[in-house]
Amino acid sequence: MNFPENLRYTKDHEWVSIDGTTATIGITDFAQRELGDIVYIDITSKGTELKAEAIFGSVEAVKTVSDLFLPVAGTIIETNPKLDANPELVNSDPYGDGWMVKMTVKDAADIDKLMNAEAYSASVA
Question: I want to staple 93 with a disulfide (CB 3.0 to 4.6 A). Which of 34, 67, 97, 107 is the partner?
Fold first, then answer.
């Protein structure tokens, strides 16, 4: 499985990419494989300030629905418009076109609490 070194990871299988105070968030390669074919993404929290580990949406696969948890506290500023028509991008490109939200991070120190690629890989092994 693929766990890019430049990302941070959560125990709930979300990844985070940081650019200044903006974080891009999606689910990991491990998560999309566990879920199977993704058919719908429901994210209605744009413009909302949420705490770390709050539910910001859900992902529906053929066999299950799973909540999405925010890795760090902040405000969701953008959702991925490509996922409305092509939710399967999460399966085919979870770290690229399959990203889910962008947010403004409230406290950059929260990022340091997340796992690096090596720790995340060990947690799912």
Answer: 97
Q: Residue 28 maps to which CATH number?
A: 2.40.50.100
Q: Which parts of 3-116 fold into alpha helices (H)?
A: 29-35, 82-85, 89-92
Cα separation values, 41 from 5, 20, 117, 125, Å: 26, 27, 25, 27
Each residue's pLDDT tens digit, 24-65: 999 999 999 999 999 999 998 899 999 999 999 999 999 899
Count how many domains the chain has: 1
> Against a cut of 0.85, is the pTM above it?
yes
Between CA 125 and CA 34 the distance in angstroms is: 13
